């Protein structure tokens, strides 16, 4: 694993995120799925339908070995069943302390309360199960991308340990954040994901007329904003948290 | 629901199918997921990992109300748990006999034995859970598209009952199949899905150079072939089966 392969993975994951948002946009917001049942009294029934759906999906995925892969981080890590598939020997690239870093609570909150209202139409068409399956795909894709920051940080550290060492020993969050910020690169990523939303979200037809060429299934500026305001800052936060533990 | 809205849905579903194939292509074929365990003795352990994964996923989706939607058809319809979400009043567009039509066994067989080897690379990377989640998305998208033939048939019948009536009363499969075949339209659909595989499967970059412009994540000719050999013939088969029962 080097900077090149990490970069390729990040770029490929952009496609997955854009696809998942386009698929979610087929359904209206369907708010019922996100509200606690009105008569909920105990901890379980106070949680939402999406909460139950994601938790049960993750239990199934855990049995299927999903979380053996260090790129995957569950939203509900407590009480997950063990994997029932043959153990694969994933390369142990990360420092062991990396596995304790999980910002999925923040991702969940941002996805539901900030991102979703920006691209899902108003309304309720009753397709809560289909909607929740799309939400799960979005959440998993965004979560994988952000937690990939652990690999980014590891590769950067490996390439220049002497550069990061002092700030790590000083536990200097701000200094590390500065070392990990490259505004020109971030600007380019924003432009690229916006372009992907244009290309993947267009109406493809055989004729060359411009009908539908300027409406997209997800507003490209929303995808750019997702990266600017949430994906890139949280990825850097994961990188900083990882580096702070890198010499433990 | 009219021919226009049915057509729009079919076109939109093409995007979903192409996205799902592109996502599956991230992983190698991972054959272990599809083989019966070598020491399997009883009916359950003789089935494959994918079989268990899809069956358990469908049970969860059934609880989440997925199969209340007449557009959705499960692969393992037996013993599905009831929906636990508020009942949505789906428009009863179809003749009740339509619900008995389910060609998912054929779809399963084609997907695993014919389609997958055409676009998944050789190899095993151990990501069986992630792979199975992608397979599920592909299977569901292809199944929804093919079973949408029920709605196509209903709308066509409603627009010209006098045209289909005689062949239905004669239970004339061949005659119905001829009435439902429009070669020019099928040719256009094949071209369009091939173009979608080109557009959605390309490497999108900010520069205008042609690097990577001619390699696609899924071979566009495979998507065209999927439609020509399997999706369109099976959709017509579903239409014929539906019409044969339409006057019951």
From TrEMBL, chains A, B:
It is found in: Cytoplasm. It holds the Pfam family CM_2. PROSITE patterns: CHORISMATE_MUT_3 (PS51169). GO terms for biological process: amino acid biosynthetic process; aromatic amino acid family biosynthetic process; chorismate metabolic process; prephenate(2-) biosynthetic process. InterPro entries: Chorismate_II_sf, Chorismate_mutase_AroQ_euk, CM_AroQ_sf_eucaryotic, CM_II_prokaryot. Residues 131-239 form the Chorismate mutase domain. This is Chorismate mutase.
């Amino acid at each position: 694993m080097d900077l090149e392969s990490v970069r390729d993975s990040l770029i490929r994951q952009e496609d997955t995120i854009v696809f998942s948002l386009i698929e979610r946009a087929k359904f209206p917001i369907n708010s019922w799925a996100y509200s606690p049942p009105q008569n909920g009294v105990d901890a379980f029934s106070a949680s939402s339908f999406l909460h139950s759906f994601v938790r049960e999906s993750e239990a199934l995925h855990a049995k299927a070995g999903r979380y053996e892969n260090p790129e995957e981080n569950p939203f509900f890590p407590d009480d997950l069943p063990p994997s029932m598939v043959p153990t694969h020997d994933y390369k142990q690239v990360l420092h062991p302390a990396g596995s304790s870093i999980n910002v999925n609570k923040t991702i969940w909150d941002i996805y539901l309360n900030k991102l979703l209202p920006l691209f899902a139409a108003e309304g309720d068409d009753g397709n809560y199960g289909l909607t929740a399956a799309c939400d799960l795909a979005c959440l998993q894709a965004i979560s994988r991308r952000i937690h990939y920051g652990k690999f980014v940080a590891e590769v950067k550290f490996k390439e220049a340990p002497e550069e990061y060492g002092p700030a790590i020993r000083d536990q200097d969050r701000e200094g590390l954040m500065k070392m990990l910020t490259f505004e020109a690169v971030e600007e380019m990523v924003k432009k690229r994901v916006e372009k992907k939303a244009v290309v993947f979200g267009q109406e493809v037809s055989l004729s060359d007329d411009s009908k539908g060429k300027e409406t997209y299934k997800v507003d490209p500026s929303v995808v750019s904003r997702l990266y600017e305001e949430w994906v890139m800052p949280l990825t850097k936060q994961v990188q900083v948290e990882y580096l702070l533990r890198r010499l433990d």
